[in-house]
Amino acid sequence: MLNDIMLGQYFPAFSIWHRMDARVKLFLLLLYIIFIFVCHTGFSYAILTVLVLIAIFTSKIPCSMYFKSLKPMLLIIAFTFIIHVFSGEGTPLFKIGVFTATKDGIEMGIFITLRLVLLMVSASILTFTTSPLVLTDALEAILRPLKRFGVPAHELSMMMTIALRFIPTLIDETDKIIKAQKSRGADFSSGSIVKRVSFVMPILIPLFINAFRRADELAIAMEARCYRGDEGRTHMKQMKLARLDYQTLGIAIFLTIVLVVLAWKGY
To answer: What is the pTM of this model?
Structure first.
C-alpha cells in the first residue's frame, strides 16, 4: 500500500511535458484547476477530460503510474460519491434502509468525483514530468516579484523542495518499520479498532526519530556547504522560455477563449 503513494515521484522521459518550462506547466495547472471549479456542464467536463487524457498519452509515462497514484485515494473518492448520492435532492431512484438515492445526487456525485480525479491526475502530470529541483526554481522565479513585499520566495521554494524530496524516503522508512514490527509478531490486520490503533505508536515513534535525525543531518550538510539562503545565490542553469513554451501558452490561451465563449453561449 505504501509503495502505491506516488507523490513527489519524478519519471525521466523525453516528451513535450518534460522539455517544457516548469513555470509554464505551473501556469497551465493553475488555469486547469480554475476551469475544473468554474465549469458545471457535462460538455465542459468532457473537454477537460479529453485534455487531461491527451496530456497523459503525450507525457510518455505508463498509464499504470497514474492509476497507481489514484489508488491510495480510491476510498476517499468512493466515500465522496456515496455521500452525494444519498444526500442529494430530486427524484428518488432507490432506497437502502433509511437512505434514499436520488437522480440529482447521482449526477452531483459523478461531477464531484470527476473533479477529484481530474485534480489528482493533473497534479500527477506536473510532478511526474518535473523534477523537484526544477519545480522549486520555477516556484521561486514566480514568487520573486513578491520579495519586495516581504514574501520569502526562496525559503518557501526550499521548504517545498525538501518536503517533496523526503516524501518517498519517509514512505520507504515507514514500510521498513512496518515489516520489522511484523517480523517481531505485530499484527496490523486483525483485532479491534482500539488494538489496531495501539500498533500505530511503535511505527510513529521510530519514524519521528528518523525524521528528526535526517533533518539534523540535512541542516549540518547545508551549513557545511556554506548555505546562507538566497543571499548571493546563483543558478547554474537559467530558466528561459523556448518556442515550445510559447506555442503551448498560445494553445492554452486559445482554448481558454473557446471555453469562455462556450460558457457565454450557455454550453
So the answer is: 0.72
Residues ≥6 apart with Cβ < 8 Å to 252: 27, 28, 31
DSSP state of 185: T
Nearest C-alpha neighbor of 248 from the set 29, 20, 12, 46: 20
Cell numbers that stand for 193 in this block: 479498532
- 8 Å CB contact between 139 and 156: yes
What is the crossing angle of helices 42-58 and 22-38, to 10°? 160
- Give the C-alpha separation, 265 to 267, whole Å: 6
Q: What angle do CA 224, 230, 235 make, to 5 degrees?
A: 90
Half-sphere exposure of 257 (CA within 13 A, CB side): 5
| Cβ 259 vs Cβ 267: under 8 Å | no
Q: What are phi and psi of 99, to 5 degrees?
A: -100, 140
Model confidence pLDDT, tens digit, residues 63-80: 888 887 777 777 788 888
In whole angstroms, what is the distance from residue 133 CA to residue 165 CA? 9
Other CB atoms within a 10 A radius of the CB of residue 42 amount to 13
